[in-house]
Amino acid sequence: MSITLTKTQEIFIQTKLQTGKYGSAEEVLEVALRLLDEYDRADRQWIDAVRVKIDAAVAVSEHTSPIDGETFIAGILDRFPK
To answer: Of 2, 27, 32, 44, which has the fewest Cβ atoms less than 10 A away?
Structure first.
């Protein structure tokens, strides 16, 4: 595979190489891709966790009597110190 980097990306990689922490541009890109993969997995886990919480809230709401908006907001505000 062949890729073309922008000047900014090239400077970024060169800067990383100058620190001595990385031995090659390929190593910098390998670390960057690994971190991207970790980010994507964490994002997916967060979405799945939120979906579970929403589903649980919907399930509870199906067994709870409806309340008007004012009562709902008052209940939330009561939880905060005055």
So the answer is: 2
Contact (Cβ atoms closer than 8 angstroms) between residue 5 and residue 13: yes
Element (H or E) spanning 72, and its range? helix 69-78
Instruction: Provide the terminal-to-terminal Cα distance of the chain, rounded to the nearest Å.
Output: 62
Span 20-48, pLDDT tens digits = 999 999 999 999 999 999 999 999 999 99
Rounded to whole angstroms, the Cα distance separating 12 from 25 reads 10
Residue type, position 37, single letter: D
Token pair of 48, please?
Answer: 């799945």
Answer whether 0.70 is exceeded by the pTM. no
Looking at residue 19, the DSSP 8-state letter turns out to be T
Q: Are 31 and 22 in contact (CB under 8 A)?
A: yes
